[in-house]
């Protein structure tokens, strides 16, 4: 404000308007873009102020008087359409689509995992600029779902192959952004189960975590950044590995923890139960492995 020749009383940006600039028009680890956007807002107010002062000096009567307060409406008029939209809260739950969580160069973010099937011979296709590690996670996820199709209730017998006459395509939108890392495993399983069962995962539920072929959920990194980004995007329930609970307690700000329901899972069966809100559980009478021990679900 001072750099543009005004005093602090000449421009008053409300807290909601400032948050609007930070979340809707910037996405970076620093504050350079935020400074530029705020500069544009102040320059617009400086022009309004100068015009108001000119009218006063010319004794020109004006119905519209200068208002120092900057609201959310003013932000949209000055900066135009938002560059970054809250995609989670606006998304309609769809079978085969799940919200994942990612760690990137500017902190954390969310990513959507989309799965579809088509007539084929059991092939898997992966797209979305995926790295080797995340491709391995996709193969492991599909292998687990195929081997447990009967327990999940996707097939009528243990010998039936769910992909005998179908191909599966896993896609992560945003092909221009490279994606890699061991944190999308449980989200991919839920996306596959969602697609095969035609059940949906709530749009405001996000998942992060890796798992083994035995179904054990493994811890991942970047929890603080992922949770804060998910909170900003409108996520209200997060499913993650049990061994990451300490990271949430020690690293995630208290105000963020209060707005989110955290669910900690040690097996993929717990993940499925929580993600589908009890609609996907092990078939009655089947035995599944839990941390190396057999337990009936």
TrEMBL record:
Residues 92-278 form the Lon proteolytic domain. This is Lon proteolytic domain-containing protein. Keywords: ATP-binding, Hydrolase, Nucleotide-binding, Protease, Serine protease. Pfam families: Lon_C, Lon_lid. GO terms for biological process: protein catabolic process; proteolysis. The active site is at 183, 226. The keyword ATP-binding applies. PANTHER family: ATP DEPENDENT LON PROTEASE FAMILY MEMBER. The keyword Nucleotide-binding applies. GO terms for molecular function: ATP binding; ATP-dependent peptidase activity; serine-type endopeptidase activity. Belongs to the peptidase S16 family. The lineage of its organism: Eukaryota, Fungi, Fungi incertae sedis, Mucoromycota, Mortierellomycotina.
């Amino acid at each position: 404000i001072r750099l543009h020749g005004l005093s602090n009383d000449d421009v008053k940006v409300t807290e909601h308007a400032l948050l609007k600039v930070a979340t809707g028009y910037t996405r970076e680890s620093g504050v350079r873009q935020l400074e530029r956007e705020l500069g544009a807002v102040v320059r617009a107010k400086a022009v309004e102020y100068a015009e108001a002062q000119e009218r006063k000096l010319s004794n020109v009567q004006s119905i519209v008087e200068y208002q120092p307060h900057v609201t959310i409406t003013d932000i949209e008029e000055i900066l135009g359409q938002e560059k970054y939209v809250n995609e989670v809260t606006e998304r309609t739950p769809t079978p085969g689509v799940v919200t994942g969580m990612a760690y990137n160069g500017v902190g954390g973010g969310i990513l959507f995992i989309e799965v579809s099937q088509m007539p084929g011979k059991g092939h898997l296709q992966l797209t979305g600029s995926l790295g080797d590690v995340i491709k391995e996670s996709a193969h492991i996820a599909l292998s687990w779902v195929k081997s447990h199709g009967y327990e999940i209730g996707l097939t009528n017998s243990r010998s039936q192959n769910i992909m005998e006459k179908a191909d599966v395509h896993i896609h992560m939108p945003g092909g221009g952004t490279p994606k890699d890392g061991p944190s999308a495993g449980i989200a991919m399983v839920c996306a596959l189960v969602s697609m095969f069962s035609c059940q949906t995962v709530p749009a405001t539920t996000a998942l992060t975590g890796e798992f083994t072929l035995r179904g054990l959920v493994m811890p991942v990194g970047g929890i603080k950044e992922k949770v804060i980004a998910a909170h900003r995007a409108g996520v209200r329930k997060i499913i993650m590995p049990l061994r990451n609970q300490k990271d949430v307690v020690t690293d995630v700000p208290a105000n963020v923890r209060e707005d989110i329901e955290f669910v900690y899972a040690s097996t993929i069966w717990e993940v499925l139960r929580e993600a589908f809100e009890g609609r996907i559980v092990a078939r009655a009478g089947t035995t599944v492995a839990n941390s190396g021990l057999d337990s009936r679900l």
